[in-house]
Structure formats: structure tokens, C-alpha cells
Amino acid sequence: MTINEYIAGAVAGMSGVVIGHPFDTTKLQMQIRTTGDHKLTRVRDAFASVAAQGLKNGLFRGMMFPVVSYGLVNSMFFGVYGNTIRLLEPDHTVRPTNSQVYLAGCVAGTSQLLVACPVEVIKCTLQAQIPLTMPKSRIDSPLYSKIVKPRTYYKGPIEASRRIFGNEGVLGFYKGMFVMFMRDVPSYGLYLLSYETLHKYLFHHGLTDKKGVIAAIIAGGLAGCASWLGIMPFDVIKSRLQVDHGGRYKGFWDCAYLSVKRGGFAVLFTGTSITILRAFPVNAVTFLVYSQMIRELNLINPHPSVEKAAQTASG
Fold this sequence. Notes:
Elements: H1 4-32, H2 43-51, H3 55-59, H4 64-88, H5 98-111, H6 113-128, E1 132-133, H7 136-139, E2 147-148, H8 157-168, H9 177-204, H10 213-229, H11 232-242, H12 252-263, H13 272-300, H14 304-314
Antiparallel strand pairs: 1-2
């Protein structure tokens, strides 16, 4: 076992959050505002509404908590992935098979859920409380007000955590755990399989530099996009469940049924465009930081199996 993946994963995770938070906030606003007078159907309107509140209270509202927390989440994810790969291929002399990479990704995706779910609940709760600024075309109607303020507004993650715990107990932090399991486990397997396959292809065809910077950016960005394409319905339901602190939904199936009943099946794909737009830069940066850090850390603190393989090859 080595701590290299845990360290590199933590830094990579924090980097990705900083890049993607404004996109993530915009996506959530679209996913929870799909019916009624104040629905947001266009990315432009949703982004403008969030941006109107400024950086601190809009685009980057609630960011510091996930920056720190997702350092831990990604540390667990990459650490478990690396150690699972070594468990499946202990000699470290043969490149892992596609099935081994996919399985290790699924295991890593499962391992981070206990930490990731409370982080998501708090983050989404704060993002959902951003006041809605209506676009000018809809303000002209007397039915709309310029600013739609939330009923409750928490100053930050500490107040949000205290209120959630006080009203709902520990289980309040695990809303949407089941749907996160369905979303994350297969998608993280695909995520890492896509990355490893693309990364190998780019290196094999000489389409990168010596340090693999170009390969990490391209493979990471495309892998992130690919992993999101099939799981948007789960993400929409997750977002709605995790911001529901009033008991509107009884659970996953109730939320799915009511969402489709009110907004049609199209509602399950709300925010797809902004999600894909976000996925490329976030995952490109995440894998770039991770790959370069792990490269340097392995020089300082090589894993015993790597040293053994090197000695065998030289002997």
C-alpha cells in the first residue's frame, strides 16, 4: 500500500472543484427549477441568474466546503483505485486488463460514497438557496418579480449542517445515497476505463509529450464527458432529493414519478449541456494534476512492487 495516490487524489480533487463549481451551481439551479413560473430552461438564463448574485453569493456560493471535502473524497477514490489495481495485479509487471480497471473503478466509486453523500447534501442545499434573478424577457410580465428569494438562507456550511442535523438527524445527510450508488458505481468504472484506454492510445500513437500532459488533458476531459452521458436521470433525481428538506418526496421512485409527471421525461435530462460543458475542463484538470503529482511522488516514494519489477528487469 502507498499513500501517493491519496495525496495526489486530494490535490487533484480540490483543483477540479475550483474549476467546476460555477458550472455545477448553474446545473443544480436548472435541475430544481423545472416547473412553475420560475423554471429555468436555458443555460444562459440559469448562469445569468447565478452570476447576478456575484462571486461569493452566486457563482462560488458554498465552494470552500466542497473544495476541502472533495480533497478527502478524491483522496479516497484515487487511493482505493490504485490499491485495488495492485491487489488485482500484485506483481505490477503486466498492464491491468479492461475488466480489472473497470472493477477497480467501481470499487473506488463505492468507497467514497459515505463521505461524498453528506458533502453533496450540504453543497446542493447551499447552491439551491441562491435567489433567482429572472431574465428581462420574463420580468416584463406582471406575473414575475425580478428577484425570487428562497424561504431559508444559510450563511454557510456550518449553519446548514446544524439545521439539517437538528431537523432531520444524521439521516438528513444521507438523502439520495441510494441514487448516488446507482449513479457513481458504474459511471466511475466507465470513467477510469475510458481514461486508461484513451491515455494508452494517445501514448501509443505519439500524440502527447514526454510527461504526458497532453494525454492527461485530452483523456481526462473526454473520459469525464463519457461517464456523464448515461447517468443524467440519476443526477437530476439526486439533486432534487438532496435539496428536499421539507418532506416533499418519499424517496427515489416517488421523486422520479412526480418529476416525470410534472415535467415529462425530458426533465430527467435537465442540465445535460452544462454538465458536459463542465465535465471536460474539470476532469482534464483533475487528471492533469493527479498524473503529474503521482509521477513525481513515485520518484520520491516508489511502491515496493515497482522497485521489485525494476530489479527483475535489470537482473
